[in-house]
Amino acid sequence: MSHIQKLLFLVVLFSSSVAYGQLTEDPEDRRDQGKDPLKTQTVDGQPLPFGQRLRFGGGINGFRFGNPFSLGVSPVIGYQATERLIVGVGGTYNYTRYKAPYYNPTTYNQFGGRGFLMYEFIPSILPNLYLHGEIENTTIQIKQDGYGSIPNQSLTSPLVGLTYSQPISRRFGVNLTALYNLNYNDNAGLAQSIYGSPLVIRLSFF
Fold it and tell me: What global pTM score does this model have?
């Protein structure tokens, strides 16, 4: 092989390596170009695999010491469907215990699930601000010491509002959500037991 042929071979090999690197380049590398990372595709427009669009996380809610004691967890799985749309599902569990002497000893077990949509509607003006809508179904189980369990009660609630997400990486962020419960007035007694207010505030991570 002549020197010219060797040189051409090295040029072709180098060019192929660069092209492959661009094809598989992580969207985070766009930060070096002064651009936001792409959420659903590589820098050359190839769609990201399903697994790289998933976002996992959740939050801790309703945390109180003393009387009553309360602690809740809310795991979440989100999927980046488009550059501006996130769809997801989540679960909720909240434990509350009232103790004597100020209350009749009572235990509340609250559990359920929800599906949600988040749409980034004005990214050119205020990026990372999402319209947020969800349907949540919650069941509450109440047990009073000495009286046994009260029959379970369930409530399905449509909630609408806004979420502001502060990205930490392409697949993880800190989310502050403010929602209004459209079903609150129609189910005042049960809704008050579950939510306490038509306004629902959450801090989550996903």
Answer: 0.76
